[in-house]
Write a structure and sequence with these properties.
By secondary structure, the chain is of the alpha+beta class. It has two domains: about 100 residues, OB fold (Dihydrolipoamide Acetyltransferase, E2P), CATH 2.40.50.140; about 160 residues, Beta Barrel (OB fold (Dihydrolipoamide Acetyltransferase, E2P)), CATH 2.40.50.140. It contains six helices and 16 strands. The protein starts with a strand and ends with a helix.
Length: about 280
């Protein structure tokens, strides 16, 4: 099966991102996609320069295409977004055609959820990206910082979610993911109802003995997705007193207003995670 393939593949572009040189953000190393067929099978696809410039304007995330004349090769050893032994590479002979009449119920998202209690075993493991689900409890404002890996400043935002056991988990978004995250919309909706979110394409890290997730260009989120796992999570914590807080940068560290302190003490589910975020 490894080699050139002239078969027509009918697939949905579930996820699309670009990977740039960490030392030179103007240098594109490759464009990546997660493709899903009508039966729910998924594969990682990559396009290398200069072909990425040719194909990128032709492809839109969420659309369905007929793709032919691709190269089938073994999956990468690291940073795999889906569990598949093979992956797809675009070549100069690849053809792509948008599907006008999409079959009903064509799958649009793919994920493989990892329980919170298994994340510590995945710290610094780079073979697969990590997908998780949780109820949003806190969203920080965007901060601008300089990291060790980059010579320029980058945006950072923290989103805290919890599982059915009220265990908090911080997901740190970087760059465009930090600035494009719909914090205000989720915060407003979260005052009246649970906001369930699936994060895909993250990696686990550990700092000061606490495990969290980090999301760069490969990370995407699905808010209140119509999937069984979201329905189950919402039902399991439906009776909890859960209110989403949008935390501005001025209160992310150090002093918290008395009104917020009182609220946290009366809501045990989010108390520990807010203490961790604010440092008190």
């Amino acid at each position: 099966m490894i080699g050139n393939c002239s078969d027509r593949l009918c697939v949905c572009v579930s996820l699309m991102w670009e990977f740039y040189d960490p030392q030179d953000e103007s240098k594109l190393l490759h464009a990546d996609m997660v493709l899903i067929d009508e039966e729910g099978g998924s594969a990682h696809a990559q396009i290398y320069p200069p072909l990425a410039v040719v194909f990128k304007p032709m492809i839109k995330e969420g659309n369905v295409y007929n793709i032919s004349y691709v190269q089938i090769r073994k999956a990468n050893r690291m940073y795999k977004p889906v569990d598949n032994d093979i992956m797809i590479g675009f070549t100069k002979w690849t053809t792509i055609e948008a599907l006008i009449e999409v079959p009903p119920a064509f799958p649009e998202i793919v994920y493989s959820l990892t329980p919170f209690d298994q994340l510590t075993t995945l710290v610094d493991i780079r073979e697969y990206f990590i997908d998780v689900i949780g109820a949003v409890t806190m969203i920080s404002d965007v901060a601008t910082i300089r990291t060790k890996m980059r010579q320029t400043q980058t945006a950072k935002r923290s989103v805290t979610i919890q599982n059915e056991s009220c265990t908090p988990l911080e997901v740190v978004l970087w760059g465009e993911q930090a600035t494009s995250f719909p914090a205000d919309q989720i915060s407003i909706a979260g005052q009246d109802s649970l906001q369930i979110i699936i994060f895909v394409g993250t990696l686990a890290r550990s700092y000061a003995g606490t495990t969290s997730l980090t999301g760069g260009s490969s990370c995407k989120w699905y808010v209140n997705p119509q999937v069984p796992e979201a329905t189950s999570l919402a039902a399991s914590i439906k009776g909890a007193q859960l209110c989403l807080l949008l935390v501005r940068r001025s209160v992310c560290r150090g002093f918290l207003p008395l009104s917020i302190r009182k609220y946290l003490k009366s809501n045990a589910c989010i108390h520990s995670s807010m203490r961790k975020l604010s440092g008190w």
